[in-house]
């Protein structure tokens, strides 16, 4: 065994340790988020309810204020008043998982710090894995999974850093990331190794890295859509005079208003749609170099296309009367389902060129894309 | 704000005013209920056209398209893998004919799939043309004047100032123009609009989709694709007759083939030597020399797996490889009747290969009669050793090559007129050579070894020099450049369409009853975005600096409420953020 190979194995070892450590820290973060939600349930926020129950007091529309402090005439600058569009419920956003509870907020902050730490560990794990194989870390399902979940958390932390209202996502995200990593280290684990020649191309790097990024953003968007659907039916129920269960009330009251969730989901999905378009085109260019045709209706290509058309359908639906709101949201979930199937389903159930053992060109099996 | 409902309140008075302000913020087709048309062919035709070019039908067609694409990914397709289709037919004798009728073995060229996308693209064209005209009209026109009550808009602000109304309007006009709004004064207010690029991007995106589709269809019609297996040292010139197999689009003619020729000098393959992925290929490359045209200069090139050789419109891809042992066959008198490299087809990842050696001419059997010889050949580049009990190769490189031959003589029926595979032997008129036990005569040979056929029938030598062959695919697909250009425009247009916000801003300045100027500003965007109020605030600050606030006329009040609306939720007059709906 050469010296280089030995260092590489060491690096692969380090990568594994880092991934396991990240999982441990994610687990701590998970419990901290749980604590945040539990402590938050103590406070009885019911802004949505008070906004929507028929008996609720008519709220004052925020009005233009020109303040005057005594006679010294210190004039305030003009304030922009924003009002809800007609037909839209004017519901305030929930306070977040901690529900305004101070201790809950503290645990939430701890959870986020832990998430940052876990992300750093996982990122190190992905990086050392990449170094150990001297290539990008997505040669097989294991590597794809660890890279994907790390990217998803990265997207979440980035949104947080940009001061977007996404803190409520924490618990859902860490839960699924833990599941994803668990799956990766148990079922999908593959010893580090290099790529077969068909995978050597810089278009691959572009194609797969944008695919992973798109997936991570779509993932976050799908969460927004899902929460929108829950919150929207909650608000509908309240508006119609219904009485949602206490658990639903406790959880949903703390989420942003359905209109905000809907907007969040739309922005996230719309922002990444051009990148997804680019990903497919980069894939076509790569296929053109590798296989002699840029589009061949291979199952992976077909499902990328279906995903693309489904997201285009979602964007259209939002501009089409009778399709806005819930129906468009279902389309967005469907579109994300297509993305998931493209990644897991096609790799597992359908055989095609992306998982081929072609005559002479050897196995390109177990490749994410 | 998201608008989960459409405002369908009948337009009256003030409402109409607001409606005009929000109108034409986009060129999306108007939503119409699918009412049945008045009688008459023209009426029906118009109705049908309206339906086809409506957003609702476009959306349904999009969903149908994605639905229709699914079966092609689950059912074997003739265009992708014919043998799988054949297997499927063998296994499902009830389903297969039904699938055939439905075109499910070639979904993407089936009538129904074509119908979906052709309808979608007709709808798209029917949508783009009027939208483009409408947009040109909007560019020629000017932003609509301010609605009567700016406080009804999704974002607004107001303050009182000592500045004259004209001064305020001039300042606002100046500022908005500097900010690249299209602005003009209408009555007592400045009307401004920005973000037309959004619409341009959206139209370009949809047009680019059409360009891509046409480029793709063009490519399919004029495409050609041929395969050729070439042993090291041999050559190829790009004419139809030289291909092992050849496919082309419906409009392709033989003259379309780019003239060139090339020789394969050497093929190199290396493989992972250890670890869990032992045996997976690491490099594949082929050194070639080629000439463009009938008599161009000879150049050399290296063709790798992801790096095709491009000659004019043609691309030469390296797609497969295998071994071609050199075999010499002598007759009973020792005369060489056959000496050639025999390309064998790989059966597995370790290049266990099989094929046939056919001696068609020149052989006479010990009785002096003309006969043909045939040998079934089985080759492994790395033999597991006779103790391993397997004849399967252990590694793809030439570590321990062994050739196994079994021998036949008789008539290969090569002259029957039916094209024969070079990798298969028609044994119907062939007799086995027998060994001492009366069984089929066969032998394992190491490089350099010779096996002697029974009864002085001759000998076969497995030469030491084992050649490799490379399989090439030559593809010509015109329209690629157009498709790429379309793709680039599509992405740029899409980004413009999704990231640019088209919005209007109005600034009204009028003298209040007490002689102090009241400034009102409002913003309206087409799609949901927090940017409209943000931008409005920024603009307001800047105008405020040039028209500073005046004290409130009623000093007792701490706060003055603007027009008090307590009925926001049911306010029929408010303009939804996506005002475009209200036409
Ligand atoms: C080939 C199929 C089509 C695809 C992939 C597609 C895709 C898209 C996408 C991604 C958007 C951006 C959404 C946005 O700006 O919010 C869009 C917008 C739009 N599309 Fe299409 N489209 C297709 C066909 C059509 C057809 C047939 C029509 C005509 C009925 C149409 C009309 C529109 C309009 C009016 C918009 C702008 C909507 C708005 O103002 O928000 N599209 N399309």
From TrEMBL, chain A:
<keyword id="KW-0812">Transmembrane</keyword>
<feature type="transmembrane region" description="Helical">
    <location>
        <begin position="169"/>
        <end position="190"/>
    </location>
</feature>
<feature type="transmembrane region" description="Helical">
    <location>
        <begin position="144"/>
        <end position="162"/>
    </location>
</feature>
<feature type="transmembrane region" description="Helical">
    <location>
        <begin position="110"/>
        <end position="132"/>
    </location>
</feature>
<dbReference type="Pfam" id="PF01578">
    <property type="entry name" value="Cytochrom_C_asm"/>
</dbReference>
<feature type="transmembrane region" description="Helical">
    <location>
        <begin position="17"/>
        <end position="39"/>
    </location>
</feature>
<dbReference type="InterPro" id="IPR017562">
    <property type="entry name" value="Cyt_c_biogenesis_CcsA"/>
</dbReference>
<keyword id="KW-0201">Cytochrome c-type biogenesis</keyword>
<feature type="transmembrane region" description="Helical">
    <location>
        <begin position="302"/>
        <end position="321"/>
    </location>
</feature>
<dbReference type="InterPro" id="IPR045062">
    <property type="entry name" value="Cyt_c_biogenesis_CcsA/CcmC"/>
</dbReference>
<feature type="transmembrane region" description="Helical">
    <location>
        <begin position="264"/>
        <end position="287"/>
    </location>
</feature>
<feature type="transmembrane region" description="Helical">
    <location>
        <begin position="202"/>
        <end position="230"/>
    </location>
</feature>
<feature type="domain" description="Cytochrome c assembly protein">
    <location>
        <begin position="138"/>
        <end position="351"/>
    </location>
</feature>
<protein>
    <submittedName>
        <fullName>C-type cytochrome biogenesis protein CcsB</fullName>
    </submittedName>
</protein>
<dbReference type="GO" id="GO:0020037">
    <property type="term" value="F:heme binding"/>
</dbReference>
<dbReference type="GO" id="GO:0005886">
    <property type="term" value="C:plasma membrane"/>
</dbReference>
<keyword id="KW-1133">Transmembrane helix</keyword>
<keyword id="KW-0472">Membrane</keyword>
<feature type="transmembrane region" description="Helical">
    <location>
        <begin position="328"/>
        <end position="346"/>
    </location>
</feature>
<dbReference type="InterPro" id="IPR002541">
    <property type="entry name" value="Cyt_c_assembly"/>
</dbReference>
<dbReference type="GO" id="GO:0017004">
    <property type="term" value="P:cytochrome complex assembly"/>
</dbReference>
TrEMBL record, chain B:
<dbReference type="InterPro" id="IPR023494">
    <property type="entry name" value="Cyt_c_bgen_Ccs1/CcsB/ResB"/>
</dbReference>
<feature type="domain" description="ResB-like">
    <location>
        <begin position="55"/>
        <end position="536"/>
    </location>
</feature>
<dbReference type="Pfam" id="PF05140">
    <property type="entry name" value="ResB"/>
</dbReference>
<keyword id="KW-0812">Transmembrane</keyword>
<feature type="region of interest" description="Disordered">
    <location>
        <begin position="1"/>
        <end position="32"/>
    </location>
</feature>
<protein>
    <submittedName>
        <fullName>Cytochrome c biogenesis protein</fullName>
    </submittedName>
</protein>
<dbReference type="GO" id="GO:0017004">
    <property type="term" value="P:cytochrome complex assembly"/>
</dbReference>
<feature type="transmembrane region" description="Helical">
    <location>
        <begin position="57"/>
        <end position="75"/>
    </location>
</feature>
<feature type="transmembrane region" description="Helical">
    <location>
        <begin position="111"/>
        <end position="133"/>
    </location>
</feature>
<feature type="transmembrane region" description="Helical">
    <location>
        <begin position="482"/>
        <end position="500"/>
    </location>
</feature>
<dbReference type="InterPro" id="IPR007816">
    <property type="entry name" value="ResB-like_domain"/>
</dbReference>
<dbReference type="GO" id="GO:0016020">
    <property type="term" value="C:membrane"/>
</dbReference>
<keyword id="KW-0201">Cytochrome c-type biogenesis</keyword>
<feature type="transmembrane region" description="Helical">
    <location>
        <begin position="203"/>
        <end position="222"/>
    </location>
</feature>
<feature type="region of interest" description="Disordered">
    <location>
        <begin position="544"/>
        <end position="583"/>
    </location>
</feature>
<keyword id="KW-1133">Transmembrane helix</keyword>
<keyword id="KW-0472">Membrane</keyword>
């Amino acid at each position: 065994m050469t010296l280089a190979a030995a260092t590489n194995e060491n690096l692969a070892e380090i990568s594994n340790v880092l991934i396991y450590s990240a999982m441990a820290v994610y687990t701590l973060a998970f419990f901290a988020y749980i604590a945040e939600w539990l402590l938050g349930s103590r406070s009885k926020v019911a802004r949505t309810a008070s906004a929507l129950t028929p008996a609720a007091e008519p709220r004052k529309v925020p009005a233009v204020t020109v303040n005057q402090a005594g006679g010294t005439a210190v004039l305030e600058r003009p304030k922009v008043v924003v009002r809800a569009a007609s037909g839209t419920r004017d519901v305030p956003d929930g306070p977040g998982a901690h529900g305004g509870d101070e201790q809950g907020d503290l645990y939430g902050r701890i959870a986020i710090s832990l998430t940052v730490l876990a992300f750093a560990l996982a990122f190190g794990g992905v990086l050392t894995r990449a170094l150990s194989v001297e290539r990008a870390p997505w040669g097989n399902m294991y590597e794809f999974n660890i890279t994907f979940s790390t990217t998803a958390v990265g997207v979440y932390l980035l949104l947080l850093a940009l001061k977007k209202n996404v803190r409520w996502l924490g618990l859902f995200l860490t839960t699924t990331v833990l599941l994803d990593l668990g799956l990766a280290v148990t079922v999908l684990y593959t010893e580090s190794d290099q790529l077969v020649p068909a995978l050597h191309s810089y278009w691959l790097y572009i194609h797969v890295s944008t695919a992973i990024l798109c997936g991570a953003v779509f993932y976050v968007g799908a969460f927004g859509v899902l929460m929108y659907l829950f919150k929207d039916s909650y608000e509908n129920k309240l508006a119609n005079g219904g009485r949602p269960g206490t658990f639903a009330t406790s959880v949903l009251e703390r989420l942003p208003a359905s209109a905000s969730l809907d907007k969040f989901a739309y922005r996230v999905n719309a922002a990444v749609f051009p990148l997804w378009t680019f990903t497919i085109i980069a894939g076509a260019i790569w296929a053109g170099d590798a296989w002699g045709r840029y589009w061949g209706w291979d199952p992976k290509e077909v499902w990328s296309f279906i995903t693309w058309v489904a997201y285009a359908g979602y964007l259209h639906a939002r501009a089409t009367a009778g399709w806005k709101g819930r129906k468009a949201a279902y389309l967005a979930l469907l579109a994300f389902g297509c993305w998931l199937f493209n990644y897991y389903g096609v790799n597992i159930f359908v055989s095609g060129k992306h998982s081929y053992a072609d005559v002479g060109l050897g196995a390109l099996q177990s490749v994410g894309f | 704000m998201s608008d989960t409902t459409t405002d369908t309140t009948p337009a009256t008075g003030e409402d109409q005013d607001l409606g005009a302000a929000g109108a034409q913020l986009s060129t999306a087709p108007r939503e119409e209920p699918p009412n049945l048309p008045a009688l008459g062919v023209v009426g029906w035709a118009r109705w049908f056209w309206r339906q086809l070019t409506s957003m609702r039908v476009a959306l349904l067609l999009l969903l149908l398209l994605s639905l229709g694409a699914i079966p092609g990914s689950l059912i074997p397709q003739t265009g992708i893998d014919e043998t799988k289709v054949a297997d499927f037919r063998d296994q499902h004798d009830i389903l297969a004919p039904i699938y055939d009728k439905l075109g499910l073995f070639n979904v993407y060229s089936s009538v129904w799939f074509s119908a979906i996308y052709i309808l979608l693209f007709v709808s798209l064209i029917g949508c783009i043309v009027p939208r483009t005209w409408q947009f040109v009209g909007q560019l020629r026109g000017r932003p609509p004047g301010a609605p009567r009550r700016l406080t009804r808009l999704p974002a607004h602000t107001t303050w009182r100032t000592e500045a004259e109304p004209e001064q305020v309007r001039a300042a606002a006009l100046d500022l908005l123009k500097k900010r690249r709004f299209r602005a003009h004064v209408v009555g007592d207010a400045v009307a401004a609009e920005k973000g037309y690029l959004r619409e341009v991007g959206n139209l370009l995106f949809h047009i680019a989709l059409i360009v891509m589709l046409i480029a793709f269809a063009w490519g399919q019609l004029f495409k050609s694709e041929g395969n050729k297996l070439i042993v090291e040292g041999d050559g190829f010139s790009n004419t139809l007759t030289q291909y092992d197999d050849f496919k082309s689009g419906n409009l392709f003619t033989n003259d379309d083939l780019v003239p060139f020729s090339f020789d394969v000098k050497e093929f190199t393959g290396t493989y992972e030597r250890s670890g869990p992925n032992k045996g997976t290929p690491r490099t594949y490359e082929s050194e070639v020399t080629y000439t463009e045209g009938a008599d161009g200069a000879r150049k050399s090139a290296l063709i790798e797996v992801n790096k095709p050789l491009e000659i004019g419109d043609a691309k030469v891809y390296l797609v497969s490889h295998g071994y071609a042992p050199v075999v010499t066959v002598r007759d009973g008198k020792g005369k060489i009747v056959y000496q050639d490299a025999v390309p064998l087809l790989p059966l597995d990842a370790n290049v266990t290969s099989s094929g046939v050696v056919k001696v068609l001419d020149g052989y006479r059997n010990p009785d002096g009669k003309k006969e043909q010889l045939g040998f079934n050949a089985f080759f492994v580049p790395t033999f597991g050793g006779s103790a391993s009990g397997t004849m399967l190769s252990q590694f793809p490189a030439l570590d321990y090559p062994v050739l196994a031959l079994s021998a036949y003589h008789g008539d290969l029926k090569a002259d029957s007129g039916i094209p024969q595979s070079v990798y298969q032997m028609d044994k119907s008129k062939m007799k086995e050579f027998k060994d001492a036990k009366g069984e089929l005569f066969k032998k394992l040979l190491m490089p350099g070894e010779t096996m002697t056929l029974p009864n002085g029938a001759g000998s076969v030598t497995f030469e030491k020099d084992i050649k490799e062959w490379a399989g090439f695919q030559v593809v010509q697909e015109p329209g690629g450049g157009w498709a790429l250009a379309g793709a680039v425009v599509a992405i740029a247009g899409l980004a413009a369409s999704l990231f640019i916000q088209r919005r209007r801003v109005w600034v009204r300045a009028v003298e209040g009853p007490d002689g102090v100027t009241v400034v009102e500003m409002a913003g309206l965007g087409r799609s949901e975005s927090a940017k409209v109020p943000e931008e409005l605030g920024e603009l307001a600050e800047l105008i405020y600096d040039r028209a500073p606030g005046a004290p409130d006329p009623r000093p007792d009040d701490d706060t003055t409420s603007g027009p008090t609306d307590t009925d926001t939720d049911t306010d029929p007059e408010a303009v939804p953020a996506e005002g475009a709906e209200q036409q």
